[in-house]
Amino acid sequence: MKKVIAIMALVTIVLVSCKKATETEPVQIEPKAPKEAEIVEPAGDQCYASRSNGYIVAISYNVNSHQEVNGKLSYNLTGKDKNEGTLVGNMKGDTLIGDYTFLSEGVSSVREVAFLQKDGTLIEGYGDVVSTNNRVTFKDRSKLKFDAKNTLSKVDCKVE
């Protein structure tokens, strides 16, 4: 008799638990629409220049949505040949790091350059350099110095 009561109790528990499972409605999980990726539109050409003591440094560039930089850079220093060339690089936070490819005295050269964006200006960075494979690069970018005397101010971009 004890076996029959135990089996009946077990069957009752199973039936009650099965009934409860069927009584609860299934939870509907609705997928949420994926968040739209933030699209950063290119800011258009940005132009900066510095003119002091017969030295003219001018840069114009565009930054795309992947933070890639393409533009032009020129140095016209009193007593030296004018250097004009292309600038290709990346924005890393508030710092533009790129390769400046230019012709000087008929020879093509590549030099790494760095500019810090600060308060609507660009400040050119300097540091120890090394020359490898016909390319001049900074030894250690973390030790670059940005001197306020090398500041380029924002200027209107001229249509050429």
3D architecture notes:
It is a single chain. 14% of the residues lie in helices and 51% in strands. By secondary structure, the protein is mostly beta strands. The protein has an 8-stranded antiparallel beta barrel. The protein is elongated. It has a domain at 46-154. The protein has one helix at residues 2-23; strands at residues 46-52, 55-63, 68-76, 83-92, 95-104, 107-118, 121-126, 129-132, 135-138, 145-154. The protein is built from 1 helix and 10 strands; from the N terminus they run αββββββββββ. Residues 26-33 and 35-42 have low confidence and may be disordered.
Biggest pleated-sheet summary:
8 strands, antiparallel, barrel
CA distance, first residue to last residue: 104 Å
Beta strand count: 10
Overall morphology: elongated
SS summary, helix count: 1
Secondary-structure element series: HEEEEEEEEEE
Average pLDDT number: 80
Structural classification: mainly beta
Taken as a percent bin, the fraction of beta residues is over 45%
